Amino acid sequence: MNTRLLGILGVLLALICWAGLIVLRFLIFHQPFSLGLIAVEMGLVVLGSAIFWRWIISVLERQASEVRQRTNHLEALHSASIALTTEHDLTAVLQKVVDLSRALLNAKYGALGILDEDGSTIAQLITSGLSPASRARMDHFPRTHGLLGVPIVEHRPIRVDSIVDDPRARGFPVNHPTMNSFLGVPLISKGRVFGNLYLADKLPDLASGRRGQTLAFSQEDEEILEMFANQAAIAIENAQLYRQNQQIAILQERERFGMDLHDGVIQSIYAIGLMLDNSRHQLETAPGAAQEGISAAIVGLNQVIKDIRTYIHDLRSSQLNGHNLQQGLEELARDLQTYSVLNIDVDVDPTTLKRLSSKQTSDLLQIAREALSNVRKHANATQVAIRVRPDHGKVTLVVEDNGRGFDTAANGKPGGHGLHNMAERAHQLDGVLDVSSAPNGGTRIAVTLPS
């Protein structure tokens, strides 16, 4: 039943009751009949009942709207929580947490800060709604001062209608975008705060027609973000455990590599060294035996070289996992993120995977490994993009960062030996290495190979 019909029925019910009262007055109490009085009473009854039922209807509609809004928020919260469970990669989970929270409450900006080991400062900041150019203009990441420090220190949410009017609004970096309303909640796991989730500038619904305005966050917004933060904390912790398991697997593989070298190659080289030393002492007393010993050492060295080549081939096959360049690049990105706070985006055109030979794929991975190593050691970057694209019958690998860059014309370039090795690998594949960089302008390394 719609509210308009409910209002009409309310007025009719009031008229029926009034008509019954008229009958009682004239038939039982024999009061005099007056058309004027009846008209006035009818008008008052209709007006009063209409006003009353209009008020009742407005209350019911408001409560129904609140119930619908609450239901929509809970459904969105449920969908966002489910979406988090589909990811295991830590970097993807962190970005999805801040993206989903911003969409959940229709905020213009969102940020997720992950604290360092001692919980004193933000070690990694993931943003949403902030363009890369705007982020690059800031002289440093926001720290745990002022408003941002409240969830960390006090372990509770904070909601501010106007940031500029709050005395705790300090510590924002230069060129930080202007923000009005603010909502922040802590990320807590096992009683320990390991991060914070922030939203700023709640936007009105498109249906409201108030474009360009920002609203204050409500108590309901705060409760919803707290519930989502609890789910996000679990998802982040699971992703961290997944990364730790991967790190353990890497360490185990390195240990196996070391054991294989020690038990095989190193023992063989040690034996050849003893053989050469013995031959050196026989040069004067038994030159024939010395010659045989040297010949045997040469045979042994050739066998060691063969064993090393076989081992390297096996490593390449294991690393490529079916000669899939994308999986190899994603593995390199995960390895680097294990030891840094870099955000690395890998984007590979799937049509390029079948165009490359096993050797091209292996060498491209080595070039990417060297490029990422240079970023970690020299660039002081926060973002790295790895792209593989077809290029007029060729394939191009690009590794680009937003670091401090360098003057390509100057001597003593950062990672000089690494750049030389990358260029040499590209040359061996009949490819071309292009390096473009500028001070404070990031670095772009592109390798183009024939497919």
Compact summary:
The protein is an alpha+beta fold and 451 residues long. 56% of the residues lie in helices and 17% in strands.
Primary descriptors:
451 residues; Beta-Lactamase; Single alpha-helices involved in coiled-coils or other helix-helix interfaces; 10 helices; 10 strands; 56% helix; 17% strand
Task: Please characterize this protein's 3D structure.
By secondary structure, this protein is an alpha+beta fold. The protein folds into 4 domains: 3-82, no CATH class; 87-236, GAF domain (Beta-Lactamase, 2-Layer Sandwich); 242-319, Single alpha-helices involved in coiled-coils or other helix-helix interfaces (Up-down Bundle), CATH 1.20.5; 323-450, Heat Shock Protein 90 (2-Layer Sandwich), CATH 3.30.565.10. The protein contains 10 helices and 10 strands. It has helices at residues 3-28, 35-84, 90-104, 132-137, 146-154, 219-282, 287-320, 325-338, 358-379, 416-428; strands spanning 107-115, 122-128, 158-160, 182-189, 192-202, 343-348, 383-391, 394-401, 432-437, 443-450. The protein has a 5-stranded antiparallel sheet with strand order 2-1-5-4-3, with helices on both faces. Strand 7 (383-391) and strand 8 (394-401) form a beta hairpin. Helix 1 packs antiparallel against helix 2 (35-84). The protein is elongated.
